[in-house]
Every structure is written in C-alpha cells, then in structure tokens.
Amino acid sequence: MDASVVEALQSPARKLLALFVANGLLTFAHTTLVTILGERIGGRLHAQAMDALLWHDLAFFDSAQSGSLAARVSTDIAEFQLTFKKLVTQGLKSATLTVGVAWQLVSLSPQLTFTLVSTMPVAYVGLAMYGRFLRVLRKESKEWEALATGLAAEAIANMRTVRALNAEDAELALYCEARAEQAASTNRFGLHMGAFRGLTNAAIGSMVLLVLYNGGRLVSRGDMSPGDLMAFMIATQSAQKALDALGSLMGQTVRARSAIARVLDIIGLSPAVPRAAGVQPESVKGHVRFMDVDFSYPSRPDAPVLQHFNLDVPAGQVVALVGPSGTGKSTVAALLERFYDPSAGEIWLDGLPLTHLDASWQRQQIGYIPQDPALFSTSIRENLRLARPAATDAEIEDACRLASAHDFISQFPEGYGTIVGERGALLSGGQRQRLSIARAILRNPRILILDEATSSLDAESERLVQAALDRLMRGRTVLVIAHRLSTVRNADRIVVMGAVPGHVVEHGSHDELMAKQGAYYKLYSQASGGGGGGGGDGGAGELA
Ligand SMILES: Nc1ncnc2c1ncn2[C@@H]1O[C@H](COP(=O)(O)OP(=O)(O)OP(=O)(O)O)[C@@H](O)[C@H]1O
C-alpha cells in the first residue's frame, strides 16, 4: 500500500482503536458494576428475609406452606436480581434512545409530537391496569408453585414414613395435582401476558397511524414539508422500537415486582413476641406461675387448649404434668418457652410477667429437652456449641461426660468432629437425647423442661439418659411432661390434666395422690397393668 495512504489512515485507525478500547473498558466496568450492585442488593435482601423469618412467631411456621419458604425466597430474589440487571443495562439503553428520539421529534414538529404524546396517558392507564391484574395472576401461580414445592420437600424429608406407609402413589397424586394447578395458573398468566404485549404493540401502532393522519393534514395545508413528515415518521419508528423494548422490560418488571413484593412482605413481618425488648433481671430463682391462662393455637383459634389454667412451680421444685394425650401438656411447655403468648391470663417468672421480660434472656434461663431433639447437619461439637457459643472444647467435653455422651462420641472415628447428618439422622434416638442433655448442661439454666425425655428409649439408653437427667435436675426448677408414670414418682408435685381443655383434675405428691384413689390412682393402676397398689414400682406402662 502507498505510504501516504497508510499515513493518512493511521490517525483515524488510532482514534478508532482508542474508541474500541474505551468501549471495551466501559462495557467491562458496566457489567462488573451491575453484577456487584445486583449481588449486593440480593445479599442484603437474603439476609433481611432470613433475619425476619428467624425471629417471626412460631404460629407462622405452623402453617402447611412454610416448608418451602426458604426456597421461595431464594427464587424470588433471583428473579428480582435478573430483572434488575436487565433494567439497568437494556432499560438504560432504551430510555436514552427514547429521550434522544423524543428530542428529534420535538425539533421536527412540536404539533405532531403533541398529538403523539397526548394519546399516551390513555394507553398508559389502560396498560397499567392490565399490569396490576397480571401481578395478581403471577402471585396466584407462585402460590401454587410454593404449595407443590412444599409437598415435594415434605415427602422427601419424611421418606421413611412415606415408604413404610406405601404412600408413594398418594404423595405423587397430591404433588401432580398441585403441579397441574400451578401449570394451569401459569398458562393463564402466559395468556394474559401475551395479550398485554399484543395490546402494547397495537397501542403503539395506532399512535403511529394517528401521527400519519395528522401529518398528512399538515402537509396538505402546507404547514409541514413532506421531507419533514418522512423524517418524523422514521423517528417515530425508532421511538416505537425503543418503546417496544421498554414494553418488554415492563413485562419482566411485572414478574420482578410481584417477586420482590413477596420478599418485602416477609422482611416486613413483625413478630407478636418482640425481639430485644423487655427487662433482663440480674438474677433468676426460677419460680414459675401460670395464672388463669387461656390459650388456643393461632392456626386453630376455635379450639381452646387451655382454659383458666393455673400452675405454681416454686423455685427448685420438680413438678410433673401427666394426663392423657392431647390435654395440653406440651402446650404448657411451649407457653413457658414463650413460643406463643396466652390469649388471656398471665405467666410469671419470679413474680414478673413474661411479657415484661426480654424473650431471648428468658429462654436463656430454660433448658428444653424435647422428645425428639433436633440436631443440625454439622459436627457434634458445633451442635453443642449452639447452646453456648463461647463454650471451650474442654467445657463441651465435660458436659458430654455428665450427659453420658462422651463414650459414644469418642468411639466415632471423627470424635466430636463427627457430622450428624440432616436432623441428626446418623445418630440413634438415645444418642440424640444425650446430646440434648449436654446442651442443657452447657447452658446451665435455672429451669428445665423435660418433655417425654426418656420415651422411646431402650432400657440401657434410658438408664444412661435418666442418670444424666438426675444429675442435671439437681437444684433446678423442673417441669416434667410425662406419659410414663415411672418417671414422675419422685416429683415434688404431680399435676394431672384432664380432658376438659387445660383443666387440672388433681395435684399432689405421688403418695398423696395414690392415697386419694382418684384420677392419678386410676391412671397409675392402668399403666402398671391393673395392680393399682400404692407401693407399686411404677411400671413402665404408658398413660395414653
Ligand atoms: N402447633 C399446633 N397448632 C395447632 N394445634 C396444636 C398444635 N400443637 C398442638 N396442638 C393441639 O393442641 C392440643 C394439645 O396438644 P399438646 O401437644 O399440648 O398435648 P399433650 O398433652 O402434650 O399431648 P401428648 O401427650 O400426646 O404429647 C391438641 O389438641 C393438639 O392437636
């Protein structure tokens, strides 16, 4: 090539190269920034939603659909993030183009531009109303989606029960039914989404036609040159393309808005038991009183569980709640843990109503050993440390020795580092219960709630767990909820609950109640196989 031509080309080529490099750098910066911003917003939403869920009322989780909540929040935030990124990239581009073209239109013919713009509010109002309807449809479709996911999650989590009951087909039928409803409602949404986009296009097309009609009249009157009308029409076409892109983005924002609305609903949840509110007394003795307490579960407000329920557990005493199944024994424990608040009456701790106390502080004073203790799928050590995050390895080991758990833990190749599986599935019932006792020991609470703590254990495990419990109970206020009367004989007082909701049939020590030959005597006789004698060994029979 001729040197002069090369020289002439060098300068523009350099400028072009600089432009390309600048373009590349800007694209890189833009993409990276949008990703970082999207992730930052997503991260904050995830944390806020999780925070709101972790502190929300237990009644909320009693509802059937709560199983798939976490998954739903995740999908909703992901949908919002995706649309957010698109809005920032494509939306900005289309909006800039629309503004540029609008400027061009005004300079070509303000009159025609006015005609074009004056039709917009009508189209906007119509489409906005349709958009609202679309959000309702989207919400409905998402609710079916959540139900179907919840059913699947529940079946998978309870696989053993499903297999043992041969319930595979029944579960599949339920799942398919929910999926069919979800597909039908998503199709309905798709149909209206199609109509929405079709209407948007038709509205824009009609606007162009109106411009052409009015422009023709201007040209025929000599108020506008044919060339300007042509230029105006071309600019209108560009505007149509830009608006079309914006319309499609609007469609996506409909989905994103309903997704973010669901997440914001969760973030905005306000628990009935407030967090970090109320007093934190310096010391606690452990005197518990239930006074005239009425309670029904929020999910079943018409079924009273406790009515005018009274219970006095002096500090350091062991009180056992016994009675047939479903009489509200575990509910008493749930109220003492302040999982729920009573609908009437008051519960006091050391003379202070629970509603005046900081709920977290109050729960710290209680060690709760449930029938089937929950473990998380992490190591034994981390599971125990949940009870007291500051506990050292040596303190954890000491607690396990006291809970008769150290020996079985030491036999695992990984020792305290052993991962216990989802919900502790890799451990036996007795092992899980001993870990639960170790948790209570680490927590060193003033009050203990033992909810059927030694049920469903074999004799050897029961002996170990009972020995650990006896050590733990010394010097504390203890509420024992028991089916098996053998475990409550030594309680300072036994409270017998009856079939009338929350009704205390009788109370007293084992010997007093046996001498009375009333409800307890009857239960005891049935449980120990009809012997009924006051000096019986307590048997291991069950009440219900
Ligand atoms: N989360 C809940 N939501 C709605 N109702 C509930 C809930 N938990 C328990 N109930 C109902 O409250 C009543 C009392 O139940 P609770 O578990 O307190 O009885 P219980 O005496 O401890 O029974 P069991 O000895 O069988 O464990 C029952 O009728 C039960 O169906």
Automatic annotation (TrEMBL):
GO terms for molecular function: ABC-type oligopeptide transporter activity; ATP binding; ATP hydrolysis activity. The keyword Transit peptide applies. Residues 16-255 form the ABC transmembrane type-1 domain. Its main location: mitochondrion. GO terms for cellular component: mitochondrial inner membrane. The chain crosses the membrane at residues 16-37, 112-133, 198-216. Signal peptide: none annotated. Keywords: ATP-binding, Ion transport, Membrane, Mitochondrion, Mitochondrion inner membrane, Nucleotide-binding, Potassium, Potassium transport, Transit peptide, Transmembrane, Transmembrane helix, Transport. It is a multi-pass membrane protein. Residues 288-526 form the ABC transporter domain. SUPFAM superfamilies: ABC transporter transmembrane region, P-loop containing nucleoside triphosphate hydrolases. InterPro entries: AAA+_ATPase, ABC1_TM_dom, ABC1_TM_sf, ABC_transporter-like_ATP-bd, ABC_transporter-like_CS, P-loop_NTPase, Type_1_exporter. The keyword rRNA-binding does not apply. It is found in: Mitochondrion inner membrane. One of its GO terms (biological process) is potassium ion transport. This is Mitochondrial potassium channel ATP-binding subunit. It comes from Coemansia biformis.
